[in-house]
Amino acid sequence: MPLAIAYSRAQVGVGAPAVMVEAHLANGLPSLTLVGLPEASVKESKDRVRSAIVNSGLAFPAQRITLNLAPADLPKDGGRFDLPIALGILASSGQVPLKALEGIECLGELALSGAIRPVQGVLPAALAARDAGRMLVVPKENAEEASLASGLKVLASEHLVELVAHFNEQQTLPLFRANGLLLVAKPYPDLAEVQGQVAAKRALVVAAAGAHNLLFSGPPGTGKTLLASRLPGLLPPLCEPEALEVAAIQSVTSHVPLSSWPQRPFRHPHHSASAAALVGGGSRPQPGEITLAHHGVLFLDELPEFDRKVLEVLREPLESGEIIIARARDKTRFPARFQLVAAMNPCPCGYLGDTTGRCRCGPDQIERYRNKLSGPLLDRIDLHLTVARESTSLNPRLGSGENTAAAAARVAAARDRQLARQGCANAFLGLPGLREHCQLRPADEQWLEAACERLTLSLRAAHRLLKVARTLADLDGHAAIAREHVAEALQYRPAAG
């Protein structure tokens, strides 16, 4: 009996490694053996595939069937392998031409009736199939998602019967017409709605312009959360490669409307979140909040209320833009290039420094509260700003007058300068880029070194300070960093200790 091979894709993290489904029929008592490190959900596919083939009016071979999912050391789970297994059996028994399976990859879960049901994680598989130069066969409900991979030929089917008829040239299934990824602007809350807080708005614009991390500290009710929710509207729209990365993450984590995928994510986890919920984890690693915030904003409200061990896991992704989750069997990499915005109270009661004098916290209480945040974590936050209590007047004219559209235009112009100069936002500059693009005049450099000594700043903090100064110069349209830019950047950096 011939050996039939159907191609498919597994799901590992946000990747889609290739899987070959090999089907072989031999003489002997009827049986079906499935090998290749299948998980329980894949082992159950034997019964689903048998019923789907029989209920579709096709013949299930009464022979010894061996199915191998290669490579054997790659774990496989989910119902996505039902369709390639069924096609492999049908091709090895002569009900589908062997050549029909060449040059295609397929995904889909089979109902007992033979209907093809949708699966998760189709977009990463579609991107990988396009790069491999193959056509992709998917359930009809997943066709629009697969078509986001521009240049990929997508064949959508609702039932096993019509797919078999297509391969036997009895009827033709048309290629799904791809519309591509629609980058539709989403209406965000307006910055002008925030009353007062001119300095905080300025810091928000600076953070958006250079992709800097930001920490707001102040009494309750001063608008810290309100300000953070305005940041996504200030950020430049996603370019197509970034939008596809965001969409691929959404594809493997949840069924969400396609219209929401091209938007920059804004994640707001509760302070009771575990380390696994924040960075990802599990026996089969799944993305966490920092990956769901990739190319977007991660907002941590009430920062000291998070468990210290949970916050410490943010240190590596804040530097590298990715998180690697290690297990005994393998390692899984998740992208995590997010912008951190955090908010906290200055003391346990929240009113330290408030003009009303309501704070009753003792020095020991305040020190214990602040010690919940480690120095290395705070060192990785570029902008620190104290948000003071504003007047309770309801007069909307107290605002700065700049709305989100005007601020976003200034941010976009600054980002364009950065991309033209160095190919990335200022926050992502490495040491070589820092030396090349953040040079100071000798007098300003000596002045900055003296200031860093007085504030006992670390070398990392000094480098991040230079990046903020570079962003301030970009906002002003200056080619060189001036002393006023360095001076303003110093205002956003508290003294160590």
Automatic annotation (TrEMBL):
**Key words of the record:** ATP-binding, Nucleotide-binding
All copies of the MCM C-terminal AAA(+) ATPase domain together span 286-387
Is Translocase included in the keywords of this UniProt record? no
- Pfam families, from UniProt? ChlI (PF13541), Mg_chelatase (PF01078), Mg_chelatase_C (PF13335)
Q: Which family does it belong to?
A: Belongs to the Mg-chelatase subunits D/I family. ComM subfamily.
Q: What is this protein called?
A: YifB family Mg chelatase-like AAA ATPase
Give the originating organism: Pseudomonas typographi
